[in-house]
Amino acid sequence: MLEVKSISKSFPGVKALDGVSVSFSPGTIHALLGENGAGKSTLMKIICGIYGPDEGEMLMEGRRLTLRNTFEALAHRISIVHQEIQVVPRASIAENIMLDKLDRYRRGLVIDWKRLNRDASEFLSMVDLSLPPETPVVELSAAQKQLAQIARALSDGAMVLLLDEPTSSLTLHEADRLFELLRKLKGQGVTIVFVSHKLEEVMVLCDVVTVLRDGKLIGTQQRSELTREQIITMMIGRSTIERWRGLLPVDTEKPVLEVRNLTSGLFKGMNLTLHQGEILGLYGLVGSGRTELAKTIIGEYRSEPGSVFVHGKRARIDSMADSLHRYSIGYVSENRKEEGLILSASVTTNLTITVWNRLRSALLRILRPAREVEQAEKTINGLDIKTPSSSQTVNNLSGGNQQKVSIGKWLVADCDILIVDEPTVGVDVGAKEYIHDLIWKMASEEGKSIILISSDMPELVQLSRRILVFKNYAIVGELDDLNERERSLDDTSMRIGRFLA
């Protein structure tokens, strides 16, 4: 169906692809794997016409293919779902799905909205997104926006479908529903290129695996011939070992954060306690209320009756600035593009923005650039952020490295309480291991208290020592016996499933 031959692509300061050749067969789910900055997204963007290669060529069904833009790619039935959320916020879900097909619904100068919404509903049902098609996209969560993007790609009738981290914000249920759909498309002869850092997904879904490292092709093999450890070794040049991290010395006599009968426009009577040195996991389906509760705690959303207590004293938090500067509470957003980063600013600015008050000159009250850069470079080295320099614009980094910057600014702030929402979305296996170690160290050695919101069940079970289960904007269950060695992912998943049934 599709072949790339000796593709090379360079950007200022980095060679993103170096002579990469891969063949993608029809009716195949083909995994494209590698660490952040390995060149996966660059190759995908060349295939769909966003970038042109510096060297090499593409062939489609044996014929040379030159694409100058995404419209030409769509004309050849090549469609992409980007890792970054790309929607028109003020438009409806249906308008976003049918954006490039509005002419089909014209009656003179009028759009047939009834037919457009009806057709869009079919694609929404395919991705299991149960919302009215007229709903403005601005009202959707990050996961719901991602599902809407997948629905838009399906509406293109693509024969080559490129998926860049399609499950990064999805729950297990939503991901399983997507996998059923992809298997159906595979049976219809569609070529699916699947980028994911979740190797569990690759092992159960994909037929072929291609691995890139530092812009070069490491190899292409049938997935059935590879073990998980072999794939990891191809990706990062070494193996990783999932290990028991030990017990957390949680001080249950010291509640550092208490939510009492908190109510907002979305939920009411919410109660939660976070203890000193604890990692508290929050699990639930999209729209269950986890992120909404977190944003209410930090003052991003307005609350009505109810109270938040920090270290036993009632807190008045009206903004994220209050939560950070008055109560030492940080929040790593699940949506780095829209909430977590200033994309047009430098890596230095993004990493140090939470501590500008500390970096100011005591006399002149102006920022000292040397101290800013020193702090930024320390964090860049610590998180292994791949960037030509600390002055690089964040928008030019790969998605995974952007995620590291989004986390890094809160690590620089050194908060006592940290709410981490989907911390390893779009992060490769090596960086994921590092971030897990970092979260564990903050709790176990530094006594930080952490709320971990994650749709990655293995991540949640591995790190959390207590889990609250959310459903329909309410806490419907609690697992409080996880701070022990004898526990399993399967058993914990089953127990959570019972609460969600």
Question: What is the total tally of β strands?
Answer: 22
Rg, Å, rounded:
23 Å
Shape: globular
Spatial strand sequence of the major β-sheet: 6-9-10-3-11-12
Instruction: Report how far apart the termini are.
Output: 42 Å
The averaged pLDDT comes out at 87
CATH arch. level architecture of the largest domain: 3-Layer(aba) Sandwich
The helix tally amounts to 18
Top-tier CATH class of the largest domain = Alpha Beta
Largest sheet: 6 strands, mixed
As a percent range, the share of helical residues equals: 25-40%
Strand content: 15-25%
Low-confidence segments, ≥5 residues, pLDDT <50?
A: none
Q: What's the CATH H-level homologous superfamily of the largest domain?
A: P-loop containing nucleotide triphosphate hydrolases
- Given helix and strand content, the structural type is alpha/beta
Q: Assign the CATH topology of the largest domain.
A: Rossmann fold
Number of domains in the coordinates? 3
Task: Show the helix and strand layout.
Layout: E1 2-11, E2 14-24, E3 29-33, H1 40-47, E4 55-60, E5 63-65, H2 70-75, E6 78-81, H3 93-97, E7 106-107, E8 110-111, H4 113-126, H5 142-155, E9 160-164, H6 172-187, E10 191-195, H7 199-205, E11 208-213, E12 216-222, H8 228-236, E13 251-262, E14 270-276, E15 279-284, H9 290-297, E16 307-310, E17 313-315, H10 320-325, E18 329-332, H11 336-340, H12 347-352, H13 356-359, H14 369-383, H15 399-413, E19 417-421, H16 429-444, E20 449-453, H17 457-463, E21 466-471, E22 474-479, H18 489-500
Parallel strand pairs: 3-10, 3-11, 6-9, 9-10, 15-20, 15-21, 18-19, 19-20
Antiparallel strand pairs: 1-2, 1-4, 4-5, 7-8, 11-12, 13-14, 13-16, 16-17, 21-22
Helix pairs in contact: 4-5, 14-15
